[in-house]
Design brief:
heterotrimer, A: 388 residues, alpha/beta, Peroxisomal Thiolase, Chain A, domain 1, 2 domains, nine-stranded mixed beta sheet, two-stranded antiparallel ribbon, 16 helices, 11 strands, C: 388 residues, 36% helix, globular
Chain lengths: 388, 172, 388
């Protein structure tokens, strides 16, 4: 059975704002970079194009109307997946596995700086009958979950704050990151208490950027590049949109998605078999909660591990070497692509000062943010089959 | 709609019943405000409109002169090569006479909207705009020659509406 | 046969289509999905993946409405994605379901399409203004009917057609809809009625247009092995095709839908169809306006450019003709809950090929059918070829 690989990418950003470019021009730049990375002509060589976008984050209905030209997809085969870029990867993976398509381009971007009422739009995603009428800033949901998570696992405020310190520090060495900085645990703990127990510095700030990736089937991938990054397994899952019936302490959507991906990638002991992980950290505590759901450690142990430095860049299992979303900036539906980007860089040996030695297998993970319980996981490797 | 299925679910309600509040409803007005960066191409287009001119961009590979202008040619997938002015006259490619406003309310005086292929641009390069100064809408024809009517300089803001409308070159 | 696995539709479900339905979007999704499962004799635990198709979030009034509808669509703790291509969604979503199964990733996929346009207050028409370019088009005061009127005028001009030729489609479809239990607007009208109806945006008159509606539909897809266990009468998805044209719709000659032709060619190639008018027994092209059925018939290569009105006049597209077209009553007769309407067409072909269409059944043992949907700013074509 043919394997699937990521053969190239292009990234613009991530920056706090991009007023000089329209979203179309932002996408054009990233797409051109991606196609040049691979050395292909999208007008002839790309079979399918996928854009990952949500109408209300763009400000137009039916967003795919405005996409084909800048990706080279005019009069070709493009569609929108209303979701995170990693759901686009899962779709591209399935398309190639049908045996009918050889090359697929996926795109996701954030033009957060164009959105004037971002929080109102997030609130607009709440159930209109049961939740929205209560009003309030929707991030109170994160505060509630953090509270429950800390209570059940005995994770401390300091351990959550350490995620911010680690990630912002990693981001300093990342040219694609918007908000790299040296912060201390005290600074995080003293930052404004916004949604108890969630503090200001623990929340990722949105940033603008666009990532385009090209995937190919095995034969084509090996012709196009000497450095394919193989997709060994994918998983994705929606637990439930209902706030009232979901699990508030464990990220079930991540656990189920991970199990699906691990099964496909034939991974039995994640902590040992994975060399690094890019985990969704829109809120600092989420990195810890997701780590446990990904079975990278026992339930409740994530806090201890970060305290011991096990997830630092030079630790046993580096987590978010890119700086995560806390360091790079929150790319909205492109968050999954930010994770995949770092995984590709690491596995190609192109991560510069952030390079993890001997990186062979990486994990990329995403969550669709408040108020969803939807996530996806991808296992990537620079080794094709069998040998480790 | 299989003959094996006898009942199809769904309880229909009349609009009147909903408007009269006889069914429990929840109302909400979203605050969704955006400020889209015009970017390089449309930014230039809007600036030129303020000057009373229409600008297009050209691709040396396919030779097209494209309006509205763009920074990449979507057919050749390469950056555009040059900027060039096109005329503010053109030919009606297709048109419609609308008795409906944007919110579906009925209009007494119709709005005439048309795609106008601009002179100086490549064949088929049209922009959408309104047509006015038409006494009898039944005389509007595809292929009619039209000319732009601009707002006076001090009223122009750099928007597509700096052109008030297009009018027929000959009386209609 | 193409692909790793052959994929079949094994069950379908649909709700009534009405201007206002009391049920919420979630409830509509549930009703349709449950009906499809019951028809196949399967339960939710047999469903391995779910795909949702729903058109602009602006109608339901929920951001990320794919997430909101997830539980209604049966996606509790399952891999779930939403695809969205404007009006083309209804036929595109089963294509997405197709690759879920054809890739070998899942054995079954539940495909649900839902639309609740009545939530948009005071009239759903208003939400359509957001599909237009905010800088170049919206300031002109765009109304959705205008783009169809512009296209209809161009089509009529190019082929020198009269309104009478086009009105025949409305008469045919509304009459067909009288035999459709879910139809909103089945009626016996004449060409005179159409020509005398209120002018909305010339040349579009009231009886040329389909209404806004609420409704949902669902189909259950299964791999060959599962399909053969579950039913004696699987209907195979033999061809899939989709295509999008450039955003610059004012730069194109609107008299012919290239994007439908390209999508059709993609689907016909996969299905091994070389002579569409001869090999296709029944067709459901997308008919939100009467002229669109003609426009799309030509794009589907069912006749030469400009020939569709002649075929309609000669009765070829009647239920007892050589190429029955829109035997369901189409959107003109059944109503237009955007995504659900497209899937209704796919379900109609499904039931026709199985001989279950009751009063609407076309005779002559139909074996091959095609359904098509259109979307965006005169840009999108999605095509599916079904075979028994």
């Amino acid at each position: 059975m043919s394997e699937v690989a990521i053969v190239g990418f292009g990234c613009v950003g991530f920056r706090p704002m991009t007023p000089e470019l329209s979203y179309k021009e932002l996408m054009y730049e990233a797409a051109v970079k991606a196609y040049q990375d691979v050395g292909i002509n999208p007008r002839k060589d790309i079979d399918v194009f996928i854009t990952c976008a949500e109408d209300y984050l763009e400000g137009f209905s039916i967003f795919d109307e405005f996409v084909p030209d800048q990706l080279g997809a005019a009069l070709r085969h493009l569609f929108t997946v209303s979701g995170d870029g990693m759901l686009g990867l899962a779709t591209a993976y399935m398309l190639i596995k049908t045996g009918q398509f050889d090359t697929v381009a996926i795109e996701a971007h954030s033009k957060a700086s164009d959105i004037l009422t971002y929080m109102d739009i997030i609130a607009f995603g709440l159930d209109p009958i049961f939740n929205r009428p209560l009003g309030g800033h929707p991030y109170y949901l994160a505060g509630m979950e953090m509270n429950r998570y800390m209570n059940d696992t005995c994770t401390t405020m300091e351990q959550c704050a350490q995620v911010v310190v680690k990630n912002k520090k990693n981001a300093i060495e990342n040219p694609y990151a918007a908000y790299g900085a040296n912060v201390t645990i005290d600074q995080v703990l003293c930052s404004d208490m916004l949604f108890y127990p969630l503090k200001k510095l623990e929340i990722s700030t949105p940033a603008d950027g666009c990532v385009v990736m090209v995937l190919a089937s095995e034969n084509v991938a090996e012709k196009l590049t000497d450095n394919p990054v193989w997709v060994k397994g994918v998983g994705w899952c929606t637990e439930t949109p209902s706030l009232e019936t979901r699990d508030w302490t464990r990220a079930e959507y991540t656990r189920i998605a991970a199990e699906m991906a691990y099964k496909q990638a034939k991974i039995n002991t994640p902590w040992r078999e994975i060399d690094f992980a890019e985990i969704h950290d829109l809120f600092a505590y989420k990195e810890l909660q997701h780590m446990e759901a990904l079975k990278l450690c026992k339930y409740g142990d994530a806090g201890k591990l970060i305290e011991q430095g096990a997830t630092n860049l030079d630790g046993e299992l580096p987590i978010n070497p890119s700086g995560g979303l806390l360091g790079m900036g929150y790319g909205l539906e492109a968050a999954g692509m930010q994770k995949l980007l770092e995984a590709v860089l690491q596995l190609r040996g192109d991560a510069g000062k952030r390079q993890i030695q001997d990186a062979k297998v990486g994990l990329a993970h995403t969550w669709r943010g408040i108020p969803t319980a939807t996530g996806a996981v991808a296992i990537l490797s620079n080794i094709k089959r069998g040998e480790k | 709609m299989s003959e094996k299925i006898k009942n199809y679910p769904g309880e229909a309600l009349e609009t009147r019943v909903i408007k009269e509040g006889k069914v429990p409803t929840e109302k909400f007005r979203p605050r969704a405000k955006f400020a889209w960066s015009a970017g390089i191409a449309i930014g230039r287009f809007l600036d030129e409109l303020k000057n009373g001119k229409i600008i297009a961009s050209t691709c040396s590979k396919c030779g097209r002169i494209m309006v509205p202008p763009r920074v990449y040619c979507e057919q050749c997938y390469k950056p555009i090569d040059d900027w060039v002015y096109v005329k503010d006259t053109g030919v009606v490619n297709t048109f419609s006479v609308s008795f409906l406003a944007a919110d579906a309310t009925r209009l007494k005086e119709p709005i005439i909207v048309a795609i106008i292929n601009l002179d100086g641009a490549s064949e088929g390069m049209g922009i959408i705009h309104r047509m006015e100064e038409i006494k009898d809408w039944k005389k509007v024809k595809i292929g009619m020659k039209v000319k732009a009517v601009w707002k006076p300089l001090k009223e122009r803001t750099g928007a597509i509406t700096d052109i008030k409308y297009f009018k027929p070159v000959e009386d209609v | 046969m193409f692909g790793k696995k052959r994929v079949a539709i094994v069950g379908a479900g649909i709700t009534l289509f009405r201007r206002n339905l009391k049920e919420t979007g979630k409830e509509l999704s549930y009703e349709a999905a449950k009906m499809a499962l019951d028809a196949a004799g399967l339960e939710l635990r047999d469903v391995k993946s779910v795909v949702m198709g729903s058109a602009p979030d602006a109608f339901d009034g929920v951001h990320m409405k794919g997430e909101y509808l997830a539980d209604g669509a049966g996606a509790y703790k399952k891999p779930y994605t939403r695809v969205f291509v404007g009006g083309g969604t209804g036929v595109f979503t089963p294509l997405a379901g197709w690759w879920h199964v054809a890739s070998g990733q899942f054995d079954t996929c539940l495909v649900v399409c839902e639309e609740k346009m009545s939530s948009c207050y005071p009239h759903p028409q208003f939400a359509f203004t957001t599909i237009f370019d905010p800088i170049l088009e919206r300031p002109i005061g765009m109304n959705l009917i205008w783009i169809f009127a512009l296209e209809m005028n161009r089509y009529m001009h190019k082929h020198k057609l009269k309104k009478e030729d086009i009105a025949l489609v409305s008469v045919k479809n509304k009459r067909n809809a009288l035999d459709n239990p879910i139809a909103q607007l089945g009626a016996k009208i004449t060409v005179e009625d159409v020509l005398k109806s209120e002018i909305m945006a010339w040349p579009v008159q009231r009886l040329d247009v389909s209404p806004t509606s609420d409704g949902a539909a669902a189909v259950l897809l299964a791999s060959e092995d599962v399909a053969k266990e579950v039913t004696d009468n699987p209907v195979w998805i033999d061809g899939v095709g989709w295509c999008i044209d450039s955003t610059n719709w004012t730069n194109r000659d609107l008299y012919y839908p290239d994007y439908v032709e390209y999508a059709a060619r993609m689907a016909y190639k996969m299905a091994g169809i070389k002579n569409p008018p001869k090999e296709i027994d029944v067709a459901e092209p997308y008919d939100p306006f009467d002229y669109k059925e003609l426009h799309h018939m030509e794009g589907l290569l069912l006749c030469k450019k400009g020939e569709a009105p002649k075929l309609t006049r000669e009765g070829v597209t009647q239920r007892d003709g050589d190429l029955p077209t829109c035997p369901s009553g189409g959107l003109l007769g059944c109503g237009n809950p955007i995504a659900a309407a497209g899937l209704m067409k796919v379900s109609e072909i499904f039931w026709q090929l199985r001989g279950e269409a009751g009063k609407r059944q076309i005779s002559g043992d139909p074996r091959t059918g095609v359904a098509q949907a259109w979307g965006d700013l005169m840009q999108y074509g999605s095509v599916i070829v079904l075979r028994r």
